[in-house]
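During the second half of the funding period, the structural biology subgroup turned its attention to how the target accommodates small molecules. The most pressing case was 3-hydroxy-3-methylglutaryl-coenzyme A, which had performed well in the primary screen but for which no bound structure existed. We therefore specified the complex as follows and requested a full 3D prediction, including the ligand pose.
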Amino acid sequence: MRVKDGLLMAAGIDDIAVYIPRLFVDAADFASARGLDPAKLQKGLGISQMAMVDTNQDPACLAANACLKIMQKNNLSPDDIGRLYVATESALDESKAMNSYVIGMLEQVYGSESFEHCGGIETKFACVSGSYALYDNTNWIRAGEAENKHALVVVSDIAKYDLGSSGEMTQGAGAVAMLLNDHPRLLAFDPKVTATSIKDEYDFYRPIGKETPIVHGQYSNLLYLIQVKKALDAYKKKVLSTGLIKLKEGESFLDYIDYLNMHLPYSNMGKKALAYLVRHEWRTLPRWKKIIEKIGMEEPSPKDPRGTIESILADADFMAKDHQFTKLLTNTEEFQEIYEAKLASSLIAPKMIGNLYTASLYLGFRSSLEFEYQKGVDLAGKRIGFGSYGSGSSAMVFSGVIQPEYESIVKEMNIETEIGPRKKLSLEEYESIHENKLSLNQNILDGKKEFVLVDVATNPEFRGQRRYVFNE
Ligand code: HMG
């Protein structure tokens, strides 16, 4: 933390803005077209709608629209912004960074060269790179490099899977812009406790030139849980050794985290992750005995507890018992209480929107603020824990505290108003857009007061150059 006039300076999120494309696919329509039980999407995965981009939108447009919103809302000029980072795994170019496209768009509104002073890069590590970008920019502020300017971190992605694949039901699109400074009104990050884990893996990846990822779905689910648990263990060591959290006999550090926000490739993954992490944490505490009695079965263990993810997934007997154990755990009063109190509100907006890759965690955070505030909870001083995961793979666990001025921002939050009027796509329209059968000027919505893509050059000399306009 930076020290100024003898006082420790906070650094964190001052405001947050969301841009979600207004086209969507309804989960029930999708299920019936693919011969699936709609309950699998709605109850099994927690998906009601998936946001889709129009023909004239790309991840850079989504990011620029979110940045424009946050700048206009806060009456900021480009001079107020010292850094603009874009975190994405939907890169448009192998070399040119997405923040340069975003700056080009913003300069159409704020004037040519108005962002000339503003540094930044595009960051990549699947869904976790937004968290690394936030961390790096927070440290830029803590180091005193910001000179009273803000950092703008925007996370933007289009989650697109092959037609007919098991990932197709977990698509979505959108961007979240976060304004960072040393006097944040929303959330100040806890210093010296951010923890990471990393491992070279192929659970989900997108080879160069391929539009959709190669996914090992069940492998990715388990890897997510293991990696986040490792980062959480490292976070726990740090919160205890720094004295941020002091435990009494029989307590868990999770008792001191008021809200948990998890990476949400589909909203029920949040519940799955909470069950896994809670189980890991509570196992050694006195309360576990009572919970095991209620569950009525011992915690199963795999035939080879030191085995690989493949060997655990192949252990059908263990997987079935483990599934049963998890279901029983999630039905206990103890789990229901922590689920409702700490996680449930973060899942509401993601259910309506789908996977946003880098932006999913932050849409969940935004959702948690809005829906907890609506319940009448005073959020000031509440500690928020974040469990970020990116395939490939890395996890990051960190936390922050809601600031006293939060209410001025959160009271205005309304995700439905922020998205605007939505249009449901027919399955035919969805598939035509998905398969790139429509040209970019065959857009379905008018995209007024937004940045849209108008051209991608195809002639060899300028191939790939993109032109955007702000639609008055
Ligand atoms: P699947 O294997 O077809 O689904 O695809 P399932 O059989 O596991 O069923 C899903 C849930 O629905 C289960 O609940 C079923 O019981 C339930 P759970 O056991 O988990 O509690 N279910 C039903 N419920 C009610 N009524 C029914 C019914 N049928 C089943 N009739 C999978 C699921 C997620 C694997 C697939 O969609 C997929 O591959 N998605 C893409 C990969 C992904 O999202 N992985 C998540 C972890 S990795 C990650 O988060 C990183 C990522 O965001 C990328 C990045 O980092 O960049 C993906």
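Two results from this model are relevant to the next phase. The pocket of 3-hydroxy-3-methylglutaryl-coenzyme A is lined by residues 37, 39-40, 43-45, 89, 126-127, 166-167, 169-170, 204, 215, 217-218, 220-221, 224, 263, 265, 269, 272, 323, 355, 357, 389-391 (CB under 6 Å). The chain is about 40% helix and 20% strand.
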